[in-house]
Specification:
- The protein contains 10 helices and 8 strands.
- It has 251 residues and is α/β, with parallel strands linked by helices.
- It has one domain: NAD(P)-binding Rossmann-like Domain (Rossmann fold, 3-Layer(aba) Sandwich), CATH 3.40.50.720.
- The chain has an 8-stranded mixed beta sheet with strand order 3-2-1-4-5-6-7-8, sandwiched between helices.
- It is globular, with a radius of gyration of 17 Å.
- The relative contact order is 0.14.
Length: 251
């Protein structure tokens, strides 16, 4: 699959992991629409990269339906989410624990529902941003690991409905297996775990190197353009070892 002139919507594409992906998509010749809340960040992305932009909250179901209806993307990347509230498990409030459920999971539900119910075109791909925490947990980030596992499961549920309804839309979970440098999640996580280990953040990142956002973007482009990954449900990404299939879609 060539991405040249393909219509791609990326939520949360103005900074960090999402911005690295948008840069990679633009370099491949894709026509990219970036969705985020901050108008100033959107304008910077538009001016530097020539992308189209839409200011919206991902948890607004009407915005999801409106944007997908207007753009009719061939690729949809659900990347936006909340920075988890970092705290020890025994000192985490319910509001802190559920922050990523109220944003990441809620937004994921609305955008996947919109893709299925419009529906977007047969052959379209929907990439759902999960996390390595969906496999091994993340004890300092409350409900984050569970939220990211739920998004993985939701991609599986959406595939079942797509097949049942004959829509031809593929949903895939993208699972970064390294912290991603220059992101809110990566910064918060590395700071909290460094403090828990009694070391400086720089020392933590030297011990556990972060993945540059653009490396992430390049690997996601590989997922979209290499037929090897067409049948995968969940795909792991590391900056050093690249792309691996974590789970195949059910036959």
């Amino acid at each position: 699959m060539s991405l040249k002139n393909k219509r791609v919507v990326v939520t949360g594409g103005t900074r960090g992991l999402g911005l690295g992906l948008v840069e990679a998509l633009v370099d491949e010749g894709a026509k990219v629409w970036v969705v985020a809340r901050d108008a100033a960040d959107l304008e910077k992305a538009r001016a530097r990269l020539g992308v189209e932009t839409a200011s919206a909250d991902i948890t607004d179901a009407s915005a999801a339906n409106r944007i997908l209806s207007d753009v009719r993307p061939e690729v949809l990347v659900l990347n936006a989410g909340a920075v988890p509230r970092m705290a020890r498990f025994d000192r985490t409030s319910w509001e802190e624990f559920t922050a990523t459920w109220d944003t990441d999971v809620k937004g994921g539900l609305y955008w996947m529902q919109a893709a299925l119910n419009l529906p977007i075109a047969p052959g379209s791909r929907v990439l759902v941003s999960s996390s390595g925490a969906a496999q091994q947990g993340s004890p300092m980030s409350g409900g984050y690991g569970g939220a990211k596992r739920m998004l993985w499961l939701m991609a599986k549920y959406a595939n079942g409905l797509s097949e049942q309804k004959g829509l031809g839309i593929r949903f895939q979970a993208i699972v970064p297996k390294q912290m991603v440098g220059g992101t809110g999640v990566g910064g918060a996580g590395s700071s909290a775990y460094a403090q828990a280990m009694g070391i400086e953040q720089d020392a933590f990142l030297a011990r556990y190197p972060a993945m540059p956002p653009r490396h992430f973007g390049n690997h996601v482009v590989q997922v979209l353009t290499d037929a090897t990954y067409d049948s995968a449900l969940a795909i792991g990404i590391r900056g050093d070892t690249g792309v691996t299939v974590l789970e195949e879609q059910a036959a």
